[in-house]
Amino acid sequence: MLIPLLRAATNTSTIICAVGACLQGYSNTSIGVTISSPGSQSALLLPGSYTSTTNPQFLHNLLTSSSPNLTSSPGFKNSTLSTALPLDVVQEPGLSIYADPLYGGQAAFSTIPSAPVNGSTPLSSRALGLSSSVWIAVNSPASPNSRVIIWDSVPDTAQLPTSAPAPGTLTLFDIESAACNPSCSSGGVCSATGTCSCSPGFSGTSCEVCASGFFGPTCSGQCPSGCSKCDDGLTGTGKCLVQETAASCNCLNGVCQADGSCSCATGWTTASNGTACAQVESGFFLTDSGATSICAIGCSACEDGTGICSTCKSGFTLDGNDKTKCDVVAQANSGGTTCPPGSFADGASCSPCSSSCDTCTGPTANDCVQCATGTYTLNNNTCVSADSNGVCEGTSLIANNNKFECDSCGSTCTSCKIPNFNTASTLNQLQCTACITGFSVSNGTCVSECPSGTFDANGVCTACDSSCGTCSGSATFCLSCANNQLASNGTCVSSCPSNTFSSSGSCVSCHPDCETCTGTSFTQCSSCPASRPVLSTGDGRCLPTCSKTEFFDSSSGTCQSCDSSCSSCSGAGPSQCLACASNAQVLRGGTCVAASCDQVVPGLGACLSEFVTVPSSASLPSVSGLTTPTASSGSGPRRLAWWEILLMALGCAFIFVVIVWLWRRRAQKKKQQRAYADPQWRPFKLQARPVGSGWRGRLLDLAERIFTRRRERVVTMNISRPLDLEMASSNPKLVPVPAPQPQRREKPGRGRGRGREREEHHRHLLSHSETTSQSLSDHSAPSIYSQVTGVPPRMPEPRQPVRAGAGADPRFSSTSTIATYYMTTAPVPPLPTGTNRERIQRF
């Protein structure tokens, strides 16, 4: 259980370090991990977490060296340690013992067992090292049945209270982890991972029940072989309740042998799917009751249920009156003479059959078709006699007087008999003497379960003893009793013994966790044994310990709180501490007193200065940085590299540009909405400037979108009536034709490419200048070609010549002239005012 490792006291100077300080001197302490590095003195690290900033500088240099080496003491495996920081020096889950105080001298370590330890181990130790969340149970001097629970490491067992065992008398009863919730039952032990490890035969989350097929308080008994159901479990007797069925060995109608093979009952054979004894054998048929029966003499195959012969053997023919029979064909000698019954054709004559045959096909007894009276035919045409029970000689078959054959015993029977058998006996008098697997003989029949008051004894239901109501295994092992008595462990008693309770006429054992109980569960305890003395009022369980800050008071049978100065204790008051709650105190004779040092090592309960003896006269080797605090590696913030500053500046600039651009776009949209809301602008419509073709045009369009307030827009106005001319109906004069105006053309490429389509009928003007309704020549519009296609004409437009001379009449009438310019009769919208004209120019 304990793995010893001898570590002798050192006669050379040693450096022992805890988190935050190191001391140099002579020491016998071995707990922890030794760290070393080339060119530097080694140091023993006591349990704790060490980082690169841990003082002093000497320890910092060791921890951060390029190739540190770690050597562990018992309980501190190298495989669990890593040179990467932080370095956690932690004991494995378990118990370390040391021969000398302050964790010195010979050392040994024991892990948490995988199963409950039902025994005790003497411990000759002066110091105990316990990992976190692990407790041990040791003997108590108060009583042989009492136990003391220790939760913390003990630097010197001589400083324990008087209620704890004295040095040299320590005995270990149990060691377990406290990580399991709920706690494990007595059938298991809590592992460091927080799960219960069950003993062999136990099962369940808390190892509280027996595994299937095991029985008894320790789940050590196993049900007998050949039993499909037995009285298993913690309170079971292990007696077989239901015999194994034939299906358990893949044998439906047969007997399972000890080697796992199957012996089929008469009339059964292996099926095509491989299942043994699942198919009716040739020459037999299945009756309505499920039993097999042999076909009639001369019939090689017959139908199930009726037995009607479907195929007759050679030399036989189907009977005309009884379809279940096949009659032998009469033999004729070579002279053509038919031989009489009891003879057979022998060349030119007929010869008599053997004396054992009534009819035959040859001279020997093996040639019988029907045997003589008192003998019966087997499948091989031989004749055998039957005994007084009707059993055919050398077989387990029964003699059938109706068929003159040896027949099967029927359903589920492997052997049978007919008492006082004679030639008048019939098969309805048959009695089974043995059954297929899973059945027992009861009153001449095969039953799957013995009747009440009987038990199965080697396949035969046998009556129980008169004192038993029911029994199992033997006639005297009572499961229930007569005369109002109680069955307790197979016997009949008037009252149940301790550790049992009465239930349905029997004394049922309590769970092994309980001393007394009200039920079989481990949550139905009424009182607890000494090994698990704590009765939990919440769930009715018996637990091995109280919590860490409590102790078990045997007088009241309850858990009581420890003194506030104790982290764990063995009794009431400040003098019964097993460990101290404050890191500024140490244990002295069971009492926590103020430590006379600057630092108490956490988890070890002793001052760092106690681990090292510093000589007053002898000089020690000088070690650099032993008392120097660890130098700070950079007290201010880290300076940024130039490229980091550049990236930050570019990022900020980009974010600023995006914010400004988004703000301008938002402002422009609001400005446009306000402009459209002006009633004087409703006749006008803004259109984007057509984009030029080619990559230059697209690049210019992109630049306008990004770097200008908006894309260049032009104002178009829907002209419902180009001129507001007042034509007096009384004045027949024609309106003079306007003077010719030079055609306004767009620049090349301006109207091509991705230019937007004009409005329907292309009646919008691309530009507009100041004009009045009194001046006809101030207005101009695209040509008809431009109005239809939306692009400027490719050549000058033809002009209509006018007549020379003043006052000459035009070629066209006034009506035609006016129709040239008037597209509709709607009123002309007002032209923009001076203010609106300025807005247009800004667009």
TrEMBL record:
Species of the source: Mycena chlorophos
Residue intervals of the EGF-like domain: 176-208
Pfam families: EGF_Teneurin
Name by which UniProt lists this protein: Growth factor receptor domain-containing protein
Biased composition annotated in UniProt, kind: Polar residues: 768-789
Transmembrane segments: 640-663
InterPro entries cross-referenced by the UniProt entry: EGF (IPR000742), Furin_repeat (IPR006212), Growth_fac_rcpt_cys_sf (IPR009030), LE_dom (IPR002049), TKL_Ser/Thr_kinase (IPR053215)
Keywords from the named record: Disulfide bond, EGF-like domain, Membrane, Receptor, Transmembrane, Transmembrane helix
Disulfide bonds: C180-C190, C198-C207
UniProt feature, compositional bias: Basic and acidic residues: 743-762
Keyword Ribonucleoprotein: no
Region (Disordered): 729-812
CDD domains referenced in this protein's UniProt entry, alphabetically: EGF_Lam, FU
